[in-house]
Design a protein that fits this description.
Number of domains: 2
Structural class: mainly alpha
Radius of gyration: 33 Å
Shape: elongated
Number of strands: 5
Number of helices: 12
Largest sheet: 3 strands, antiparallel
Order of helices and strands: EEHHHHHHHHHEEEHHH
């Protein structure tokens, strides 16, 4: 149909009804209003979905703790952890902020931790063991002085300290705490290192004159986790290095703050040197 007498059809419950042209604008307004309302609903649902997805992308504390534990291990778990953390820079950065501290400990703090290391309370000595695995006793005291302390002359304190210093896990069957030799002494080997000083071993046996097991004893802090003879002996420090590498790649102000904090640690410790090297490179880029 055409012309002035044009009519429009609308579907009603009772069947077809012919609408006059004068109803056209009213229908169009209602239709437009319905379409607009539908668009608003769709956009709202989409926004909620995007928000939910971004929220789910933030790693849970439990997941972050698992990845932190994996960073302590070997391959391939540590590399997988690095890759997963690299995809979540915000979560990883805040988690690292709570876990990374500069490597420095006072002699008084060290002696207190060593006392707790010899405790009969299982939780107390394990906490002290973890603490000293991170804040290595050699940050505050030399190897020979450590082994001469009255508080570490007998089992189990001496054996736990030897495990900390040699980098062995307390769950490792080769560890001093598992071997339970009656005597553990610091033995100087009659060979000189390429650095001009002597080799040292922890020697375990049933008497002062027997040596049935050996554990590497590194006397120099600057060689810990670096020198080929003890590379990887400080797993906690290897984990710090991996975390610092991730923070460097994130390249954010918050990440830099954490690196700067670690850089204030003992100048001879490997992670401290690594943090300072990162800052040096970043400063040259600015």
């Amino acid at each position: 149909m055409s012309g002035r007498g044009l009519y429009y059809l609308a579907v009603e419950p009772m069947g077809l009804q012919v609408l006059p042209k004068t109803a056209r604008s009213s229908m169009m307004r209602r239709t437009f209003a319905y379409l607009l309302l539908t668009l608003v609903v769709v956009l709202t649902l989409t926004a909620n979905l995007v928000h939910a997805q971004s929220t789910s992308a933030m790693m849970s504390p439990h997941h972050l703790s698992q990845l932190w534990a994996d960073l302590l291990g070997g391959e391939p778990s540590s590399t997988r952890a690095v890759l997963k953390l690299s995809k979540n820079p915000d979560s990883a950065t805040e988690f690292f902020a709570s876990e990374l501290s500069p490597l420095k400990i006072t002699k008084q703090e060290l002696l207190g931790a060593i006392t707790e290391l010899g405790s009969d309370d299982d939780r107390q000595w394990r906490v002290a063991y973890q603490h000293l695995s991170y804040f290595d006793p050699r940050l505050a005291m030399g190897l020979e002085e450590l082994l001469s302390l009255d508080s570490v002359q007998t089992y189990p304190a001496r054996h736990r300290l030897v495990d900390v210093l040699s980098g062995l896990s307390i769950d490792d069957p080769r560890s001093a705490i598992r071997q339970r030799y009656k005597v553990i002494k610091l033995d100087k080997i009659n060979r000189v290192t390429p650095f001009g000083d002597h080799f040292f071993n922890f020697c375990g046996g049933d008497t002062e004159n027997t040596c049935r097991a050996n554990w590497w004893a590194e006397p120099r802090l600057e060689r810990l986790n670096v020198w080929p003879m003890n590379e990887g002996a400080k797993k906690e420090w290897t984990r710090i290095i991996r975390a610092l590498s991730l923070l460097e790649s994130f390249d954010s102000p918050r990440a830099r703050e954490i690196i700067e904090s670690v850089a204030t640690g003992h100048p001879d410790a490997q992670p401290t040197k690594f943090a300072r090297a990162i800052l040096s490179v970043q400063s040259k880029k600015q």
